[in-house]
Amino acid sequence: MAGIDLRPYQLEAVKKLKTGSILCGGVGSGKSRTALAAYYLSNDGEICTDEYFPMGDPPQDLYIITTARKRDLKEWEGEMAPFLMSTNPEVNFYKNKIVVDSWNNIAKYVDAKGAFFIFDEQRVVGKGAWVKSFLKIAKVNDWLLLSATPGDTWSDYIPVFIANGFYKNRTEFYEEHVVWNPHSSFPKIDRYLNTGRLIRLRSRILVDMDFKRETIPHHEDVYAGFDQQMYKDTTKNRWDPYKNEPITSAGGLYYVWRKIVNSDISRQQEVMSIVKEHPRAIIFYNFDYELDILKGLKYGDEVSVAEWNGHKHQEIPDTEQWVYLVQYTAGCEGWNCVKTDTIIFYSQDYSYKVTTQAAGRIDRLNTAYRDLYYYHLKSHAWIDMAISRDLKNKKDFNESRYYKW
Predict the structure, then answer these.
(1) Overall average pLDDT of the 354-378 stretch
(2) Which residue has the higher pLDDT, 49 or 18?
(3) Which pairing describes strands 245-246 and 239-240: parallel, antiparallel, or unpaired?
């Protein structure tokens, strides 16, 4: 029976992992297999490519908390197969319990003890219900966190620091490290103290995978035009030209600005030009009106069109030429495609993480393509340039930061 095959950087990461670690690796780096290998080793398995060495039976119960999409697509089932594990007791080689469920159901497992938890797509930020359940689980179980982006600020690490016993609670962290802004009407952190200790604590739990991609991404900004007069009139008069009614909020103004630039015929022409050059392409979009536009384009009789969004989940066409229309929120994670080298971002998403995850759909370890092409459609309108600037700086675009109604 074949053994467990890990890439060198995955094997190196496995050696460093211990309960309480955050496994940090980019999209497509193989975090799932690496985490399963850590569980396998901790239960007396042995990594060998030529022969499979069974774990002690029964090994620890295994709980994998992931996104609902990954659970429903049974992505983890495929990752478990080389380890002879399955959520189906009739297929599982061992007598332990294996559960794959979504973050929405994490509270169901707070009574588990002595098990091994893998928390996928790290969601333990803040102090909500998920964090409370996570802290209860972490006290009496072994666990790992998997994340492509483990934390933007020190506050993001508070739950993990508490779970590792570095601090008793959030209050202790605040007392040692936080200076509050005295001029803010709500609790707002002004700066952090003793960051040297925070850096040392983070280095104790963060395990980076030294992942050297063999693919070469080519990101190209493609600028389209927009109706500048409509844009100016909307800004000046606060009038929605699509609904023919007043705009009553800042959010409404942003939405109309985006619709003006995203609906322009020149942007549609750019899509047609790219698809003509790349006969198989994934197109990410944000809004339903964009889907209507993209579905209405004349790609050609030989081009198949399918979509993945909140309304439909169609498979990628098995044809020579196709366009796959994917809504960011519905399809930025939990699936991959090695049948194309091209992604078109018809409009920009506000989230840097979502954008990165979307790009990772084609940047996989098993892709046959070396060069990957990403086309970012945008205009020179302020709204597009502001979003683009924040994403370039690896930040989320926040409307309230730029504009006060």
Answers:
(1) 92
(2) 18
(3) antiparallel
Residue 141, pLDDT above cutoff 80? yes
CA distance 383 to 398: 11
Q: How far apart are CA 161 and CA 199, in angstroms?
A: 12
- Beta pairing, strands 206-208 & 189-192: unpaired
Burial of 207 (0-12, 13-18, 19+ CB in 10 A): buried
Q: Please write down the HEC assignment for all residues of the chain.
A: CCCCCCCHHHHHHHHHCCCCEEEECCCCCCHHHHHHHHHHHHCCCECCCCCCECCCCCCCCEEEEECHHHHHCCHHHHHHHHHCCCCCCCCCCCCCCEEEEEHHHHHHHCCCCCCEEEECCCCCCCCCHHHHHHHHHHHCCEEEEEECCCCCCHHHHHHHHHHCCCCCCHHHHHHHHEEECCCCCCCCEEEECCHHHHHHHHHHHEEECCCCCCCEEEEEEEECCCCHHHHHHHHHHCEECCCCEECCCHHHHHHHHHHHHHCCHHHHHHHHHHHHHCCEEEEEECCHHHHHHHHHCCCCCCCEEEEECCCCECCCCCCCCEEEEEEHHHHCCCCCCCCCCEEEECCCCCCHHHHHHHHCCCCCCCCCCCEEEEEEEECCCHHHHHHHHHHHCCCCCCHHHHCCC
Q: How confident is the model at residue 401 (pLDDT cuts 50, 70, 90)?
A: confident
Q: How confident is the model at residue 369 (pLDDT cuts 50, 70, 90)?
A: very high
Report the distance separating Cα 255 and Cα 259, nearest Å: 6
- CB neighbour list of residue 322: distance below 8 Å, 6 or more residues apart: 279, 280, 281, 303, 304, 305, 306, 316
Work out the pLDDT band at 3, boundaries 50, 70, 90.
confident
The tens digit of pLDDT for each residue in 157-211 reads 999 999 999 999 999 999 999 998 888 778 888 889 999 999 999 999 999 987 7
Partners of 3 in the β-ladder: none
Span 324-351, mean pLDDT?
Answer: 93
Given this model, what pLDDT does residue 403 score? 63
Q: What are phi and psi of 227, to 5 degrees?
A: -75, 95
Is residue 126 pLDDT above 60, yes or no?
yes
